């Protein structure tokens, strides 16, 4: 030792390395492990041997030799041996750690997976958990729990038989679920770092234990689901927590992650505690705009600093795990609680909150939502359609361009019950509403979907029933889109929309610029590619499904365009045959006489169809012009009648003013009136006829007096006058000579006398 002390550092290091090498070659570690069996009752010597083994276990070679000598099981079985100094437990646990790290981990676990070792670990952990108060005790307790967690990964370890599983479940849940077990009576965890790590380690070991189906009943008895659900709730303000805000947030995320692993094995417990409702309520809090500052410090909180995305992510993972069980009770309960609408709303909000900084977590949230919705709607046709309708009603333009065709084709198109339900819920109306927005990037997608929907015979009635702004019909909308498309493509049309070139009625400006080039048979020509590159073919297909007849709400201009659309296929076929003929000429090939005649007849037929369409368009335009002239004439006639009526009214008013301001004019008008009345009567009166005057005598007015007749044949005293049936008749106002005359009041005979009260 003195010699080594006097040497330089390098020589001392070499000497130390040499000694370690000699110890490895000589198998010193293996010999010392074997000697432990001889020192069971000699504590001091045993501690010195353990100290030496602790140093030797830093070498991988020594660890391998120790494992071959069954060091792991031998040391672990004596962990709980009496030792007032506490060195035995500390050094033994350190050796076990080194063996797990520096030798075959599987072999060490196999040695520790026996009843004797697990009973020793259980007793040590219980003692440290219940009686450990120092920082050192808590650290040692956590180390023992980590070793136990590693052992529990072995399915053959007798965790349940040793009673360790029951105790671990109790220790994991006693803080959240009240227990009468004496082990935890009066026990409480602090917010120290060691106790916080212990709580996370207990959550972690529950995830491992639940993989053994024989543990399920113990998890039910320990009310693990109830304990974990105490964390699935919004943080309550002004509530005193035993954990700090950052610690509670991390435990909350860890608990929800644990639920995702445990709940699928405990479906009845999950439903008993109304798990779906609690998760959906927590998701609603995650989606609202309440002020909340998350710390996002832990592994589970990654990407959730300053927001609630981490909580939302793990809640959605939990829902995804439950939905993927394909349990009818769970999925039906979610649908009844409005999960579909809520998830779609969250999806929309995540799109609006999208930013590059949180791209990863937002994409994960969106993916989980889509997976959950697909799971809920896989065997639920109304649910699928409700998702599509909800998206369409929200007008999510950013989403539609990517997901709409995928949704409709995967969920609805091709399945007649789904198509019928979609039509019943006015889905076609929503598609047409989007089409009416007249946004180019949507038109092609929506028209493609419309073409496939029109294969359903019920679709035509819905399309014809749709009305847009200013009572616009679907046919009018489609024809308007056709005209807009042709204008953008540079198709030649006159000011009325008629065909200009009957040989090339559909040619675009691009086709005019491009020269025809001979191409192989498997290469599409420009005329063929034109079909796929614009929406004209799709509009033709949709209107074709509507039969081009009895289309409501079309103007003359629409009918002129409709003539072209109706013959689109004929024009396109003629255009392709014309390309073939031109390619033959360019290749300097001469077809046989028969083929040449056929080609010429096809070209001529296509041109004749164009001329026929032009003729029909001209007739429509002329007919509309005549109709416009007739309508204009009717309007002029109506205007003339109105002016004439005004003139007559003005003349009548002038005559009236003249009669009221000039007495001579009034008398003259009166005489003319009386003369007209006399001339309208019969010349001879029937015998014994009673004459009734129709005017009031002595009245100087030319205005008709109204339907007044003075009856003189019946005396007024017999009938009591015209007001005999009213209370006013008591005043006896008879009519004499046609005019009402005042008379003195007459006391009625039938008026009862008042009796004397005396």
N-end to C-end Cα span = 155 Å
- Give the beta-strand count: 2
Q: How many strands, which pairing sense, and closed or not: the largest β-sheet? A: 2 strands, antiparallel
Average pLDDT value? 82
Strand order of the largest sheet: 1-2
What gross morphology would you assign?
elongated
Number of helices: 36
Pfam family, one: CFA69_ARM_rpt
Domain Cilia- and flagella-associated protein 69 ARM repeats: 14-580
InterPro entries: ARM-like (IPR011989), ARM-type_fold (IPR016024), CFA69 (IPR048732), CFA69_ARM_dom (IPR048733)
Protein name: Cilia- and flagella-associated protein 69 ARM repeats domain-containing protein
Structure description:
The chain has 758 residues and is mainly α. 63% of the residues lie in helices and 1% in strands. It has 36 helices and 2 strands. It has helices at 2-6, 9-26, 28-36, 43-56, 60-68, 71-76, 87-102, 105-112, 115-131, 135-152, 164-173, 193-209, 216-221, 224-229, 245-262, 267-272, 275-287, 309-323, 328-336, 339-352, 359-377, 381-394, 397-411, 416-424, 427-436, 440-453, 459-465, 474-489, 509-513, 526-533, 536-545, 556-566, 568-586, 593-661, 663-679, 716-719; strands spanning 735-736, 739-740. The chain has a two-stranded antiparallel ribbon with strand order 1-2. The chain is elongated, with a radius of gyration of 51 Å. Mean pLDDT is 82; it is low at 1-13 and 728-758. One of its GO terms (cellular component) is sperm midpiece. This is Cilia- and flagella-associated protein 69 ARM repeats domain-containing protein. One of its GO terms (biological process) is olfactory behavior.
């Amino acid at each position: 030792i003195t010699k080594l002390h006097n040497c330089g550092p390098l020589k001392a290091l070499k000497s130390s390395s040499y000694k370690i090498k000699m110890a490895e070659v000589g198998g010193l570690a293996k010999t010392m492990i074997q000697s432990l069996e001889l020192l069971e009752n000699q504590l001091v010597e045993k501690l010195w041997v353990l100290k030496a083994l602790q140093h030797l276990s830093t070498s991988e070679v020594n660890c391998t030799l120790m494992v071959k000598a069954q060091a792991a099981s031998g040391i672990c079985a004596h962990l709980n041996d009496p030792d007032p100094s506490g060195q035995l437990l500390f050094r033994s646990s350190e050796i076990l750690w080194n063996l797990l790290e520096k030798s075959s981990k599987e072999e060490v676990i196999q040695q520790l997976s026996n009843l004797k070792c697990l009973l020793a670990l259980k007793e040590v952990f219980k003692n440290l958990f219940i009686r450990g108060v120092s920082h050192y005790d808590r650290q040692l307790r956590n180390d023992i729990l980590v070793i136990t967690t590693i052992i529990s990964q072995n399915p053959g370890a007798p965790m349940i038989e040793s009673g360790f599983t029951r105790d671990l479940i109790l220790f994991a849940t006693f803080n959240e679920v009240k227990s009468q077990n004496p082990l935890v009576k009066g026990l409480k965890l602090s917010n120290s770092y060691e106790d916080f790590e212990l709580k996370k380690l207990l959550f972690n070991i529950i995830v491992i234990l639940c993989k053994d189906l024989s543990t399920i009943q113990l998890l039910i008895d320990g009310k693990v689901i109830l304990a974990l659900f105490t964390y699935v709730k919004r943080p309550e303000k002004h509530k005193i927590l035993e954990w700090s805000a950052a610690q509670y947030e991390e435990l909350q995320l860890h608990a929800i992650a644990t639920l995702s692993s445990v709940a699928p094995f405990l479906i009845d417990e999950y439903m008993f505690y109304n798990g779906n409702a609690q998760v959906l309520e927590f998701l609603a809090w995650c989606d609202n705009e309440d002020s909340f500052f998350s710390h996002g410090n832990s592994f589970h909180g990654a990407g959730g600093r300053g927001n609630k995305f981490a909580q939302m992510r793990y809640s959605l993972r939990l829902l995804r795990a439950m939905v993927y069980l394909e349990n009818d009770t769970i999925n039906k309960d979610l649908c009844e609680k409005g999960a579909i609408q809520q998830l779609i709303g969250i999806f929309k909000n995540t799109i609006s909150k999208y930013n590059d900084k949180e791209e990863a977590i937002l994409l994960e949230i969106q993916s989980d939502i889509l997976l959950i919705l697909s799971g809920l709607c896989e065997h639920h046709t109304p649910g699928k359609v409700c998702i599509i309708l909800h998206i369409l009603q929200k007008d999510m333009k950013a989403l539609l361009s990517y997901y709409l065709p995928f949704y409709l084709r995967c969920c609805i198109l091709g399945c007649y019950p789904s198509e019928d339900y979609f039509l019943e819920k006015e889905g076609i109306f929503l598609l047409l509403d989007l089409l009416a927005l007249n946004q180019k990037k949507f038109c092609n997608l929506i028209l493609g979907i419309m073409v496939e929907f029109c294969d359903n015979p019920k679709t035509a009635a819905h399309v014809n029933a749709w009305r847009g702004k200013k009572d616009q019909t679907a046919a009018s909308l489609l024809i308007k889109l056709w005209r807009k498309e042709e204008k953008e493509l540079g198709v030649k049309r006159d000011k009325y929309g008629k065909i200009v070139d009957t040989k090339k009625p559909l040619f675009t400006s691009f086709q005019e610029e491009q020269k025809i080039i001979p191409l192989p048979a498997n290469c599409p020509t420009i005329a063929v590619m034109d079909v796929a590159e614009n929406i004209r073919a799709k509009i033709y297909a949709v209107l074709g499904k509507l039969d081009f007849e009895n289309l409501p709400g079309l103007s003359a201009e629409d009918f002129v365009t409709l003539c072209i659309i109706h013959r689109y296929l004929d024009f396109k076929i003629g255009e392709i045959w014309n390309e073939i003929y031109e390619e033959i000429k360019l290749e300097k090939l001469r077809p046989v006489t028969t083929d040449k005649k056929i080609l010429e007849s096809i070209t001529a037929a296509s041109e004749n169809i164009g001329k026929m369409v032009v003729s029909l368009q001209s007739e429509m335009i002329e007919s509309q012009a005549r109709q416009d002239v007739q309508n204009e004439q009717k309007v002029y006639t109506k205007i003339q009648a109105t002016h004439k009526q005004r003139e007559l009214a003005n003349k009548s008013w002038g005559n009236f003013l003249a009669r009221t301001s000039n007495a001579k004019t009034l008398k003259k008008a009166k005489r003319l009136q009386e003369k007209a009345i006399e001339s309208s009567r019969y010349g001879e009166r029937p015998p014994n006829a009673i004459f009734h005057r129709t005017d009031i005598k002595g009245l100087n007015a030319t205005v008709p007096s109204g339907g007044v007749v003075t009856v003189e044949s019946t005396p007024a005293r017999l009938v009591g006058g015209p007001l005999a049936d009213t209370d006013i008749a008591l005043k006896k106002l008879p009519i004499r000579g046609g005019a009402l005359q005042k008379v003195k009041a007459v006391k009625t005979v039938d008026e009862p006398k008042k009796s004397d009260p005396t």
